[in-house]
Every structure is written in structure tokens, then in C-alpha cells.
Amino acid sequence: MRNQNTHRRTIKAATLTAALACVLATGVQITPSLARPHPADLRNESGAFARATKADVGSALSGIASIYHDRITATGEHMNSNAMTAAHKTLPFGSMVTVRNNRNGRSATVRINDRGPFVRGRVIDLSPGAARVLGVDGLAPVSLSVNGRAYARRA
To answer: 62, 89, 135, 152: which one has the fewest Cβ atoms less than 10 Å from its Cβ?
Structure first.
């Protein structure tokens, strides 16, 4: 069995090398605009992720919302699929955000407790409970309004 896996890896490597050689031979240029941004691209000059500030409270964002199903969130909480929670790339944990579904006009307030989505064009990942309240089934255009923090930052 071990020799079969090694053989398969060798075949895959040879196939990928041949495909790359064909692409390079045709002269196709691969530009960065065709690639998805890496989460590391969201970092600022100091190497830390850009964080929302007090100036962001009351600001509005718009984009696409999706639904996520993680077992454990970035805050260490166990995922409660019925909770009104969401994931955002840069807002501090505990931020309260009002999400408005632009298709049906429904809105709900959610608490940020996770990081994501890391897909271009998406601004927020909703828990299944929040998505149900908003009438989101899959992807939906939404508007976000940052309301503040649910709890104080721990020292």
C-alpha cells in the first residue's frame, strides 16, 4: 500500500509539472487579480490584522453574507447554531452589528465571535440561527451597521 501511495504522488507531481509546462509554453500570464487574496493580505504594516476602531461604530458596510458551520469559533466558544452570532474579518470580538437583508428588508443584531469569511466579496458569515431570522438561504446581499461592543475587552 505504501508503494502505491508513493507511485500516486509521483504521477500527480508529473502531471502538475506537465500542466505547468503547457501553461508556460502558451505564454499565458497569470496576474495577481486572478488569485484570491490570502488572509495574510489583510494584515497592516505591523503584521497584525487591521482592527476596527471607535470611528467604525455607526459606519455602514455592504456586501454578501453567507452561512457558516464551525464547531469552535475563534473566541473559543462552542458553536451554537441557534445563537445570533456572526464572523467578520476585522471587527473586534463582541462587536454588535445590525445586519439588514437587502432582498427582503429583514434585519437582526448579531454579535461577532469568529473570524471570516475569507472569500472575496463576502463581508460577514452568519450563524444558522441569524440566517434563519434574516431569511438568508445560502448567499444574500446585506448591509451592516456597527452598533458597538457587547462586553468590555478583557485585560
So the answer is: 152
